Amino acid sequence: MGMDMDMKDHIEPRTCPHDGAPIGPGFLYCPTCGRRLDHARPGPGGGALGPAEPFALTTTFEHGSYPVATDSFARALVRLRARDGVALEDARCEGHVVMVLDVSGSMREPLKYPLLRHALRTMLASVDDRCSVTVILFSSEVHLLREALPAPRARMDAAVVASEMDWSPVLFQDTFLAGALDLAIGAVERFRARQPHAVQRIYILTDGQIHDEPAACLRTAALEGLNVEINSYGFGLDFALASVRRILGCAIGGQVKQIRDPHDIAETFRHVLNVTARVIATDVGLQLHFADGVIPGDFFCHRPSHRRWPCHAFRPSSAPVFELGNLEAGRTYEWALEARLPEDVGPGFVLGDLELRYRVGEQLRTQTWPLAPSIEGTDLGPVEPDVRRAFQALDVFRDASPEALIRSFEARIEIARLEGASASYIAAMEQVKDSLSQGSSLDELDSRLVNEASADISTCAGACRLPPEVKDYLERRATLDEQNARLVAEATVDVSTRTGPMWWQSEVVP
């Protein structure tokens, strides 16, 4: 059952937003459809509408209807999206992107480090006016290359910064992440002291195994308490997906995506800037208010990443709050919820409310929607396949059986096809699913295949398939940029221990 409800200020008289029924004073719920009347529209002659709220929410229950006087187990998929026409320029906030970049020995390849530095240079050259960038390099040691570099300076110094990275003393050693996380946490806290309402995000790029995972995991609590979105990209086929997920813990965001084709890294870095510029709400929290007699089940995030909040951890149990970070224009967010209905359920029953709290600039705002399954007849209504697929994909978070894992991959494959995911991503999931069906375990499979099949969906996969002549032009243009930038960089960087061209220049550029 789908609902899309407007949230607007109103005065009497009112009409129900779902069926248009007139509503008299003193009613709490619509007598025909059961929706709460604080979501009703003003009726004819009832006065002008207030400004439309920026977000629209749609709730789809697993069954089109639930039987009367039955304690059914109801599951629903909740979708939230910014309304078309939201004034993005008016809602946007200052941004700060912290890039934590792996420059360990495994990056010393013609299709890794040269593409990384090109991606960083082009990213800095296109920074939005309201965004600052911090760049942290890590291998055996860490190097804070730039902190909170303002957009005008980033665009001006893009080639210089990339050239300075070439001479960093930490290049091409082992992979120790903990120190880089300390620098990232400090950069976020210092920027917050100057810009308390800014949108801040941390992105970690790594291409191999983390050599100090226990030490990095000691930073997990600090990352979770930072209240900023933290995501990671695995560069290539062999990266420590499980280790990175353990390090991120329950931090906001928590996505671990794969950059399967190295040439996609530049587009990925541009995407990082674009999504930060599209943030229109910060400090977002979602609270469920369950009606009396309703027994809550688990709550899940389905998009943009998968996560489970078990019902036994709800605080308070009847009105749990979930911290979500930021919301972007142009992105759909999906959550999955479940609850046991009371035995005396009847027509007009409202399971509860979903309240969204968020900040636009310095203004705190809220929107609320009722969760109202259709209650009628004596049997369950038809199944909504989208809801069932989502729960099959998510059940693996609480059921570790091989059967649940196979069902999860089957559902994820269907969803990926419907969403138009890359063919290689779907093929990897199918191969893993087939192996599991034949009795293999994940531990027995190639880790690179499991990584590709288990990573979160990459928004930019396959986005940078450039014609050869375009790639050739970009490489030649990059070479000229480096030659110009080196004249500036060498005036400020100690190059006494480095002479001659960098190792990769003769390998990548003709």
Your description of this structure?
With 510 residues, the protein is α+β, with helices and mostly antiparallel strands. The protein is built from 14 helices and 18 strands. The strands form four sheets. The protein has a six-stranded mixed sheet, with helices on both faces. Helix 3 (151-166) packs across helix 13 and helix 10 runs antiparallel to helix 11. The relative contact order is 0.14. The model is unreliable at 1-12, 25-29, 33-51, 459-471, 487-499 and 506-510 (pLDDT under 50).
Layout of SSEs?
Blueprint lengths: L13 E2 L6 E2 L17 E2 L12 E7 L11 E10 L5 H4 L3 E8 L10 H13 L5 E8 L3 E9 H16 L11 H17 L4 E8 L6 H5 L2 H6 L3 E7 L5 H8 L4 E7 L5 H13 L1 E12 L4 E9 L3 E3 L11 E8 L3 E9 L11 E9 L2 E9 L13 H10 L7 H18 L3 H15 L9 H8 L13 H22 L15 H4 L2
Parallel strand pairs: 6-7, 6-9, 9-10, 10-11
Antiparallel strand pairs: 1-2, 1-3, 4-5, 5-16, 7-8, 12-15, 12-17, 13-14, 13-16, 17-18
Helix pairs in contact: 2-3, 2-8, 3-13, 9-10, 10-11, 11-12
Quick take:
The chain has 510 residues and is of the alpha+beta class.
